[in-house]
Structure formats: structure tokens, C-alpha cells
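User: C-alpha cells for this one?
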Amino acid sequence: MTTDSKTLGPPESHIFKTPFLSIQFKHIRKHAEIIAALFSGLLILITWALGDSIPSALWVTMHLTAFVIGGYAKAKEGIQETIANKELNVEMLMIFAAIGSAAIGYWTEGAILIFIFALSGALETYTMQKSNKEISSLMDLQPEQALRITNGQEKIVPVSELGLDDIILVRAGERIPADGVIVKGATAIDESAITGESVPVSKLNNNDVFAGTVALDGSISVKITKPANETLFQKIIQLVQSAQEEKSPSQLFIERFEGTYVKVVLATVAVMMFLPNFLFGWSLSESIYRAMILLVVASPCALVASIMPATLSAISNSAKNGVLFKGGVHVENLSHVKAIAFDKTGTLTNGTPEVTDAYMDPNLDKEKVLAIAGAIEKESTHPLAQAITAYSETNWSGATPAIGQVTTLSGNGVSAYVNNEKWEIGKAAFVGKQKAFEFQNGIAETLAREGKTVVFVKYNDKIAALFALKDSIRYDTKIAINTLKKHGVHTVMLTGDNEKTAKAIAREAGIDHYIAECLPEEKVDQVKKLRTDYENVAMVGDGINDAPALASANLGIAMGKGTDVALETADVVLMKNDLPKITNAIQLSRRMNKVVKLNVVFSLGVILLLIASNFLQVLDLPLGVIGHEGSTILVILNGLRLLK
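Assistant:
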């Protein structure tokens, strides 16, 4: 393949220089705050070392330069926020303190104050960057181009141009650019970017694949099922981004408290500049000096920094481990949960039931009943319906009957017409309990006691068939339930299954309590009842019918492979469908709340100690600066521990 000079762009020297300089500039910009803070500190150190050996004008100029370089970022932030919110903030308090220190001749102390304040600000920025790292790495994994096949012709196009039902080719070793379904080929897929699971998953025809995952050992043709901006990959990125923007109740309280506190401090400083001179006989210079120290030590920097770095670190840590929180409020609230309600299918179980038993009315054509049942259930996306369809297709190879007027009654069953004859498929209550349990000498009760879900087929007011299905418990369900119970969390299963099936599944999983034959609207009522009894309740589900209950709970938790509606409604998403991750997230939430409480108590304690020392005249400005700003750096570092 040859290319003319016009397509090559700039000369060779520019090809090497420009990207390099761009990368270097980007790197410098990323660390601009810490570089400015350290340069400011270096300038202060040089000025202090030179001391009286340099002219006073140069000495002052060097301090002013340190002020500007170190304080520019925070001063700009403080002024912009003050103008925007019409509310004084901690940044403005630090500016006033530094100017006040310089005004009474304490240039070095004021510069040190700016330096340490800038350093603590740089640490906060580092926390933000660290918490954004997972998003950045995810974005880097999103391919920008795809190989589209149209009428047998291959063409590289931007991913944004891909439309629904487009066919793309993904070769071995390439990253899949969009969500879709395999229509040709087979491969092993590395889904670690989505689920965190390092073991590749084998994918064949009709299997779903996700953007950002890698086809390892085979080429596949994929039909696009979602636009590029609606892929699971994009949703993960959006979830984490929105989580960082949403603040916890503690953070919101501190921010509201900050404005009032700053005003009180400034008023107190104004009074202290003159009142001790009259009441305690302090000299005017001593009163002003003590007022400047008060301005420094009473600033709530450490208190303000007690929560956000810890919250962002916890969100980032969770995202890395496959648990996505939609906001700091949910990280904070998770540790307060006293009861958790679980949907059964797809949550406690694998969600892929199989037909284990099938009984037909001997007076009817078995193959006809099987064919019609499979055709009707093919119209539904419910796991039980899909299992019956799969069983029908396996045991019947004839033509599919034509069906019409399909009506689904959520949580109960489905009805349809075949050759103007009405057929109904669903639970016992849907087709008639008495006839259902009399069918085949009451075999339904025996099957239900075995933990199987029983589905009936009704035709001409008679039970035509019965299917028994079994959905196996997830291998990690028992571990998760057992751990939750050890943490004192009450567990409840909400299921549409009958009493006997629900009892068998609950007993096998170790669930404390279960509620059977629960319709979607009844799940909401049960969650509300649990909130009355336990105050803080979480709901875990994966289906569209779980969305109302997820929204009704204090905390909605969705399984990552669930429906889009469940993912959008939930407050927390388990990307790997791994229930034990809930207990890990609860432990992280408790750790975060402990860190926040420790930070708040520590920062308030330091402020009170420094204020008392100042009134007793045993604290000078340098120690006040170090004590106050040092406490700010310590609480930020303590919050960063949650990254691990």
C-alpha cells in the first residue's frame, strides 16, 4: 500500500517532535498544582537560606513570587466560587490569612501557609485524578473504529457511525467496538474490562458480546444491537462519572456549614484584633498578631477535606473491583442497611432454568401441545418461557404453528390464539388452581416440594400440559447470604414462585425469610413493609419487574447482566453478578464511614487545640500554620488509604 506525501502530513521531524512535546505538555499540565506548590516551597527555602544577605526589596519580591506561584490555583478557585455562589469559602479565608500575615511583617509564615495550603490542594487534585484513573483506562479501551461489512465489502468506519443491525468483523486479538450478538464464528472473549473476571468466556452464535472486550482466538461477525453511546461500556463510564459528581449527605452538610463558619471566623478575627487590647491589656500589635493566628488555625480546611477524598477513594476502589456506586450518598448509606430483599431468578439463582419434567394430557396430541407451547413462549423474554421454548425446539422439529393475539399478564402468564382457539400458559392461579393441582393426580405438588417451578398449559378450559423447571442456585449465593447474616443483615427473598418452590429455594440458599407468589407491585409493598420494620433496606434484582422495588428501597442494587431498566434504576451495580461483592462493598462502606468520622473528630480536635493555645498565647504563627495545614494533609492521606 502506497501513500502520497499529502496524506503523510507534516515533515518527519514534526512527526516525532510534536507528539512528544504534546505528551510532555499534557504530563506537566496534569501535575501543574503539585509542581507549583513544590516550586513555591523551594523559593521559600532559598529566600530563608539567603536571609539578610540579599536586599530587602529582592527578599520581599521572592516572597511575593512564592505567594503568587503557590497560591494562584487556590486563589482563582476561591474567588470564582465566591462570585458564583455569593458565599465566602475556606480558600478566601486562606488568602486573607496570608495577606494578613504579610501585612504584620510575617512574610515567611504567610508564604509557608500558602505553600502548605497549595500542597494540600494538590493532594486533593491527586485524589480526583486517582479516582478518575479507572474511567480514563476504560475510555482508552473503547475502540474508535470498526470494520463494517456491507454487501460483502469491508470498510473501516468510525464507531459513532455504526447503526443497529450493522454487521462488523472482529478478528482474533481485536477489541470489540460495540455491543452486539455473534452471527458467525466463535471465540473466547476476555471480558475483564467489564466484569473484572480474568478467565475468558467462550462465545458462539447468538451469544451477546460487549464493547471493550477482546476476541482472543477466533474471528467473529457481530450484528450491532446498541448504538455506540448506549453500550454497557459507556454506561459503566457514565455511572462512575455521575458517582463522583453526586455528594454524600455528610459532604453536603460540611459545604453548607463552611459558608456560615467562614463568616463567624472573620467576625471573630475582626473583634479579636482590638477587644483583647481593651479587656486583657494586650498590646495592639499582639492582638492583631493573635487575630492573624486565629484566622489561620480556625480555618476549616481539614474539616472540609475530611470527606471528599475518602468518598472518591471508596468509589474508585469499588469501581476497580466491579461494584459501581452512582454517588457518595450510596457508599455512605450502604453500611446502614439492616435488611436486604433479593429477587430469585437471575439474582440468587443463575437465571437460566431448564425443563426437568414435562407431563401431557394423554387425550391430546403431545407433539401439537409441545409445538404450540414453544411457539407461544417464544414471544416472551422471561427465562422460564425461554426454557420451555428451548425444550420444545429440542423435542419438536416440525413447522412452528402460527399464533396471534398474544397477551402477557406480568407475573402471571401469557395467553394467545392458535387457529381461533385460546391457549393459556402460566402459574396455577392463572389457569385455575383447582384444575392445576388435580392434573396428573396432583404431580405439581410433588414437583414443587423438589424446589421446581411448575408452569401449566391450559386449552379449552382443561389443563393440557405441565412443565417443571429448575433454576440452580448460584455457587456464591450461600457464601454471600451466610456472610450477610454474620454482619447482622436480615435476608428476604421475593419471588413469583409458589409457596413450595420458594420454600425449597430459600432453605437451600439459607435465606431468613421468603415471600412467595409476589407480583411486581407486591414486591414494592413488601419493600415498603421492610422499610417500616428495619428502616434501612436494600433491594437486589436484575429484571424489568424488579425496577419498581429497586426504586422503593433505600438502596437499589442491580446485577450487572440485568436489564437496562434495572441498571438505570439501581443505586449500585454489581458488574460481575457476584453476590459476595455486596458484603465487600458493605465492609468498604463501613471503613469509609469510620475514616470520615475519624477525620472529622481529628480535624475539629486540632482546630480547638490550636485556638485554645492561641488564646493562651503559647502558639506562634509558624506553629499555627504547620499544625493547621499539617492536619489537612493528614486527613487527605487518611482518606487515600481507601484506594487500597
